Amino acid sequence: MDIFLIIVASLLMLLGVLGSFVPILPGPLTSWIGLLVLSFSDNVSISTSTLVLTFIIALVIYILDYIIPALGTRKYGGSRYGMMGTTLGLIIGILAPIPFGIIIGPFVGALIGELLYQQDSQHALRAAYGSLMGFLASTFIKFSVAVVYLGLFIWIII
Fold it and tell me: Checking phi first, is residue 117 left (phi over 0); if not, alpha (psi -120 to 50) or beta?
């Protein structure tokens, strides 16, 4: 049974790393589930405090994944319309069956939001760029946490 749990946990860890880039899978949360599955193994010891701390981190990263692109929009001079456009674009980009929808959605959403707020296309493009930078920052953070969880996983089973 332990080998089965380790195999399932390994797959979840790899899916977590992949989920940092694929919008369908919540990367760090999937990696955390891998740690949780591993904790059920009789031959592996993971403290409850480690599981709780890693869960809190994964949950915070999951929530920030939806906030950071909007903050990027704001940092690059976007208005409330641009931030709302970013959030709506992100949701539509996730749900729409278009390639790179999760990247294109927030960018286009911020651009449309800013163009509705003010007609200055230069300003709107800058805010949309901020949305893209926020998305890339969020992806980097998710990937980093998933890799740290993978390292923790490897350290625990060795």
Answer: alpha
Determine the Cα–Cα distance for residues 105 and 93; give it in Å rounded to an integer: 4
- Whether 154 and 18 have beta carbons less than 8 Å apart is answered as no
pLDDT of res. 1: 76
CB-CB neighbours of 11 under 10 Å: 13
Q: Residue 59: name the closest of 27, 29, 34 by CA.
A: 29
84's CB contacts (< 8 A; 6+ apart) are: 113
The 10s digit of each residue's pLDDT in 96-117 is: 777 777 778 878 888 888 888 8
Give the three-class secondary structure for 96: coil
- CB neighbours of 62 closer than 8 A, spacing ≥ 6? 26, 28, 29
Query: Model's pTM, two decimal places?
Result: 0.79
**Tally of CB atoms within 10 A around 10:** 17
Domain ranges within the chain, ordered by starting residue: 2-157
99: which residues sit within 8 A by CB, 6+ positions away? none
